[in-house]
């Protein structure tokens, strides 16, 4: 598919039935009061919010809107254009973001589909569809950007492994049931890492929330103290974990960026509204900012479409890294510009919770945007990936 | 203008710093979010080192002492309105600059009544009406304004409020840089300290140069308020605007160097960055401050340090108020 076709697809014109689908989703959002759900979640305390999110997820799932990107055999099977329409219309309809189900729907699902055994898929994919949540336990206090140096150990034991180690920054772990876990089964470096599906209810697992800069307890530490993990919970062969983690990371990154790019495009309305309300003296500056970001957002949407098309046959880590680089810095720039224009009005009367740039509340979204240049790989490290794998520069600072 | 602060003032700054550190340092801001009593500990420490004895309106030396105190308070994220208290009126009402469109005062709850002024000099009485509803900058509160038919605010008060707030931000930025340097020296990834990666060294170097420039601009604004031949409003606005620009960036970058830890409240940088937001955004955000600066320059001109006639005067003056 050429970039030109993709451009038209973004506008929703190439496939028949897309307009009908858009209308269907739009109507559904209105009937189901998507904005009301978002408002209730924003006002709820963390536990109540988590419960609301599961209820909302189940409604989406029932309608086929929660995992349209999954293979048809598992209840998805929508074309990329259809996925785009669904994502866009849900966002436009004010639907809350499914952040607590995010790892399950994207990362865990991709891992199971790409590298899981038939039994693992049978066990876990249906459970995700009925609301089971996952988190990701990769990072450790001493292993962030240098993930391959992780120390959490899985030692062979009767029927499986005994796992001991300390994971950190695991988003949503306090509300999750299962964890994608990387642990060391062999020697140092990438070649000694295996991939596990850890049940967080196992004896010896302890989850502790960490308070973040926005006052939320979004990420957590996970302590594993001699936790038993059965053999059948290992994904792929022993010591193959690094390869699997990389394949599934890029698989999920491209798709989530589709959603994020639509969210951003829709979010431009907040900026437009803001500039429209500016005093005549600041209008000119506001328009300049609006122009600059409209251009960048549009370029980003096209980039997402291109990367996704290029990766149809096989996921490409480097290309996915470019998307995250562009997205995170664009998000920060827009939030910052918006807050600066909104001034004090962007500071008061905030919703207490916001995932990315979607609350229309500049202060919260500005703080929220800080996460994006670190989570899922810090931008300096992504730049190394682009330099080495896309441009073929000699290997620099990393192993 | 002297490009460095006199030694006695630096000495004073060190004693303010150790008093605040003894009281709990940045931890006070963290604690005050849960229990505002922690703010009293900061006030007590500052009062013991003589905050209430300084009147920056007296002369350049007093203003410099006040500036140093504000700088150190910014570095420790002291959870109290230092600039407001230092510029309090004879009836002990603290003073704040506000925007009349959406008046917010940082740490407004520290006093029942405030004396407030807009950048154009309209004077109001302000009282707390509500917390800002945002749990993100816990102490900035919305205030209600009652217009007073007083004289317009003294230009010196307005200018000092801007300059002292720039000093406060300067301290915050310097602290953020210190934290970045310390963290990137200690934290190892890929078998070496983060500060061994050139991209990080270069960024840290840029940040320190930016802060050096800001420090000089702040001192110049202060000096100009007392000794300048013309109205110092453009200088004070320039210092504030530069502080907003530079310190916002230093905080962002320092957080970035901390990785995910920069977003966790167990780390000082996270607390510092959040508590700095009101000073970064009040009374006007950067874009609006720049608008005011442009207008002030158009109206009054901008002498600057190197204006031709000014240049030799600056070179000849040792920094004492004339
Ligand atoms: C919001 C959020 C959610 C997260 N969710 C999860 C999760 O669910 N599960 C999970 O396992 N982890 C999660 N993480 C952790 C994330 O993967 C790590 O934070 C990330 O990999 C960076 O590691 P670090 O925080 O230890 O920073 P460090 O690796 O210590 O890096 C600190 C700074 O140094 C720079 N740096 C590092 N190496 C180099 C280099 N070679 N050259 C130049 N600069 C370098 C980085 O760019 C960064 O600015 C999350 C993080 C965030 C912020």
Automatic annotation (TrEMBL), chain A:
<dbReference type="GO" id="GO:0005886">
    <property type="term" value="C:plasma membrane"/>
</dbReference>
<dbReference type="InterPro" id="IPR046373">
    <property type="entry name" value="Acyl-CoA_Oxase/DH_mid-dom_sf"/>
</dbReference>
<comment type="similarity">
    <text>Belongs to the acyl-CoA dehydrogenase family.</text>
</comment>
<dbReference type="GO" id="GO:0050660">
    <property type="term" value="F:flavin adenine dinucleotide binding"/>
</dbReference>
<dbReference type="InterPro" id="IPR052161">
    <property type="entry name" value="Mycobact_Acyl-CoA_DH"/>
</dbReference>
<feature type="domain" description="Acyl-CoA oxidase/dehydrogenase middle">
    <location>
        <begin position="135"/>
        <end position="227"/>
    </location>
</feature>
<dbReference type="InterPro" id="IPR006091">
    <property type="entry name" value="Acyl-CoA_Oxase/DH_mid-dom"/>
</dbReference>
<dbReference type="Pfam" id="PF02770">
    <property type="entry name" value="Acyl-CoA_dh_M"/>
</dbReference>
<dbReference type="InterPro" id="IPR009100">
    <property type="entry name" value="AcylCoA_DH/oxidase_NM_dom_sf"/>
</dbReference>
<dbReference type="GO" id="GO:0016627">
    <property type="term" value="F:oxidoreductase activity, acting on the CH-CH group of donors"/>
</dbReference>
<keyword id="KW-0274">FAD</keyword>
<dbReference type="Pfam" id="PF00441">
    <property type="entry name" value="Acyl-CoA_dh_1"/>
</dbReference>
<dbReference type="InterPro" id="IPR036250">
    <property type="entry name" value="AcylCo_DH-like_C"/>
</dbReference>
<dbReference type="InterPro" id="IPR037069">
    <property type="entry name" value="AcylCoA_DH/ox_N_sf"/>
</dbReference>
<keyword id="KW-0285">Flavoprotein</keyword>
<protein>
    <submittedName>
        <fullName>Acyl-CoA dehydrogenase</fullName>
    </submittedName>
</protein>
<feature type="domain" description="Acyl-CoA dehydrogenase/oxidase C-terminal">
    <location>
        <begin position="239"/>
        <end position="391"/>
    </location>
</feature>
<feature type="domain" description="Acyl-CoA dehydrogenase/oxidase N-terminal">
    <location>
        <begin position="23"/>
        <end position="131"/>
    </location>
</feature>
<keyword id="KW-0560">Oxidoreductase</keyword>
<dbReference type="Pfam" id="PF02771">
    <property type="entry name" value="Acyl-CoA_dh_N"/>
</dbReference>
<dbReference type="InterPro" id="IPR013786">
    <property type="entry name" value="AcylCoA_DH/ox_N"/>
</dbReference>
<dbReference type="InterPro" id="IPR009075">
    <property type="entry name" value="AcylCo_DH/oxidase_C"/>
</dbReference>
TrEMBL record, chain B:
<dbReference type="GO" id="GO:0033539">
    <property type="term" value="P:fatty acid beta-oxidation using acyl-CoA dehydrogenase"/>
</dbReference>
<dbReference type="InterPro" id="IPR036250">
    <property type="entry name" value="AcylCo_DH-like_C"/>
</dbReference>
<keyword id="KW-0285">Flavoprotein</keyword>
<dbReference type="Pfam" id="PF00441">
    <property type="entry name" value="Acyl-CoA_dh_1"/>
</dbReference>
<dbReference type="GO" id="GO:0003995">
    <property type="term" value="F:acyl-CoA dehydrogenase activity"/>
</dbReference>
<protein>
    <submittedName>
        <fullName>Acyl-CoA dehydrogenase, C-terminal domain</fullName>
    </submittedName>
</protein>
<keyword id="KW-0560">Oxidoreductase</keyword>
<dbReference type="GO" id="GO:0005737">
    <property type="term" value="C:cytoplasm"/>
</dbReference>
<feature type="domain" description="Acyl-CoA dehydrogenase/oxidase C-terminal">
    <location>
        <begin position="165"/>
        <end position="277"/>
    </location>
</feature>
<dbReference type="InterPro" id="IPR009075">
    <property type="entry name" value="AcylCo_DH/oxidase_C"/>
</dbReference>
<dbReference type="InterPro" id="IPR050741">
    <property type="entry name" value="Acyl-CoA_dehydrogenase"/>
</dbReference>
